[in-house]
Write a structure and sequence with these properties.
By secondary structure, this protein is of the alpha/beta class. The protein has 19 helices and 10 strands. The strands form 4 sheets. A 4-stranded parallel β-sheet has the order 2-1-3-4, sandwiched between helices. A two-stranded antiparallel ribbon has the order 5-6. Helix 1 packs antiparallel against helix 2 and helix 5 packs across helix 6.
Length: about 525
């Protein structure tokens, strides 16, 4: 951000020209100035100590471009390698009964369009977001999910439009596998380079916190526990007229007075001023925002009045008057609702057709072990608190709740049938819920519905619990694929549910459905 550090930046440029002796002189001058103004804080690292220059403000953009270029090279190479394997190796006769030979020029358009579309899928998953590259460390599931989505869409698109020559399904499988391996290997090397201190230090945004609250404490802990996080809390200053709501931890440097904020912004290369205390008087907020605007520093406020659905916060103007509030969430929009409902209907029909043999087989096994109904109807809480009957293949004895007590199933639950353990482990007992999806009570993906008897008081005991009921419950959900199911921590489960509600998109649903087949942690 040019100008945010103009005085010290000018001195640094001069010092670089004069050599290390000049640089030492600049550092000494800055330290003397801080001492005179009473703003010297232990542990604060100056910009000169990090060796940063004004040009480093653009460093994150260059890193993102480098990552994109590397992905592009790997993607094209992977598709070319898949072409050679399919048509110029021993696999060229696999599944082919004969026909004219395929040359590279015949597949050139596939390779070009496939490379571009895969890069777009990666971009949609926010894998080129400058400073956030630090936070998005190489996770195999990210690469796998992106490549699987791309491979499915690539093949489906070609089949719908009947291109000539037709796209080989073996080629798509090879290209998807090669892209997974290539991108994963390349990104491992790339993230290894990013984690070097001299690179990571230039990517991190430096924060000064005004006031200290539980939110500021939580933010600092998250950053400290994640060395790949793109932020660094440099120091904190007391809120004007209020001081600190609670004492900052010993590891966080602090200034003595709020008036030191201007000096800190100028001398410590601050990128973000974060107002953590919402009780600060409005004129102090205006003055702080004005200071940040003049110094080209980002000004942010912790929205403590909005401790839920914060991604829906939106600033709008009504006749020139700014209004801040919770905006519409993704699934509040009609188009998104229609898209999700269309996917649900198609998925439910396909699911019912494919699961019919499973229902017949496991229904027979259930009846042989425990004669009686094979389908179990259970009251659950749906969207906007509406109660509906959810269908399941019965996995427990008929007298599982004969004493009238309602409770969650637990590991090694003695009420469970022998075949029930296997069904619950692999989610087979859930397949009748495709009918619930088809009739509109549920969705394929969403927060898992709970029993009204178990959650009657949760809305009073657990913060933000009822916010999860703003969308339809799902057969599978983001919390479930992350191991939060059954008798697990409800607070953590709700946080995952709310994350899904706030960040819904079609690819997120597809990712969750795919992960459902590979993750069954805590199934019981």
């Amino acid at each position: 951000m040019p100008g945010a550090h103009s005085r010290l930046g000018g001195r640094i440029n001069t010092a670089v020209k004069e050599g290390s002796r000049g640089l030492t002189s600049v550092e000494s001058t800055c330290q003397d100035r801080l001492k005179r103004e009473g703003a010297l804080i232990q542990g604060a690292v100056s910009r000169t100590d990090l060796g940063l220059t004004e040009q480093c403000r653009q460093f994150s953009d260059w890193v993102a471009l480098l990552c994109l270029a590397g992905d592009a090279v790997v993607t094209v190479t992977s598709l070319l390698a898949a072409f050679w394997l399919r048509f110029h190796s021993s696999l060229r006769h696999f599944g082919v009964g004969g026909g004219p030979p395929i040359f590279l020029r015949d597949y050139a358009s596939y390779i070009v369009c496939g490379s571009i579309s895969l890069l777009l899928v990666l971009a949609q998953r926010q894998m080129y977001e400058g400073r956030w590259l630090l936070h998005r460390r190489s996770r195999l599931k990210d690469v796998i999910a992106a490549c699987l989505l791309w491979g499915t869409g690539f093949l489906g698109f070609s089949l719908i439009f009947k291109f000539h020559p037709s796209l080989s399904r073996v080629y798509v499988a090879l290209a998807t596998s090669a892209a997974m391996a290539g991108l994963y290997t390349w990104r491992q090397l790339f993230y290894g380079w990013l984690r070097q201190d001299n690179v990571a230090g230039k990517l991190r945004q430096r924060i000064v916190v005004v006031g200290w609250t539980a939110y500021a404490q939580r933010l600092t802990q998250i950053i400290e526990n994640d060395p790949s996080h793109p932020y660094a809390v440099v120091c904190c200053v007391p809120a004007p007229e209020l001081g600190f709501q609670q004492d900052p931890p010993p590891g966080v440097a602090r200034a003595d007075a709020y008036n030191d904020i201007r000096t800190l912004v100028e001398t410590l290369a601050i990128d973000i001023v974060l107002l953590a205390d919402a009780n600060v008087r409005i004129w102090h907020c205006e003055a702080l925002a004005s200071l940040c605007e003049k110094e080209l520093v980002q000004f942010k406020v912790v929205p403590s009045y909005f401790s839920v659905m914060v991604s829906g916060l939106h600033l709008e103007t009504i006749s020139g008057i700014p209004i801040l509030g919770v905006s519409r969430l993704p699934l509040d929009r009609l188009f998104n609702k229609l898209v999700k409902r269309l996917i649900d209907v198609v998925g439910a029909v396909v699911g019912l057709l494919l699961s019919a043999p499973l229902i017949a087989i496991f229904g027979t096994l259930i009846y042989l072990e425990s004669p009686g109904p094979i389908v179990y109807r259970q009251r659950r809480l749906g969207r906007n608190g509406r109660i509906f009957e959810m269908l399941k293949l019965r996995s427990m004895r008929l007298d599982a709740e004969k004493d009238g007590k309602v409770g969650w199933s637990t590991k090694d639950d003695p009420r469970r049938l022998r075949i029930g353990r296997f069904m619950r482990k692999w989610n087979i007992d859930e397949v009748p819920q495709f009918w619930n999806v088809l009739v509109g009570d549920m969705s394929l993906v969403g927060p898992r519905p709970e029993r009204p008897e178990l959650i009657r008081d949760f809305k009073h005991q657990i913060p933000h619990y009822n916010a999860r009921h703003t969308v339809k419950p799902g057969i599978t959900g983001w919390a479930q694929v992350n191991g939060l199911r059954g008798d697990t921590d409800l607070t953590a489960r709700i946080s995952y549910d709310l994350y899904y509600v706030e960040h819904w998109n079609v690819l997120f649903d597809l990712q969750t459905m795919i992960l459902t087949f590979f993750k069954n942690k805590n199934a019981c």
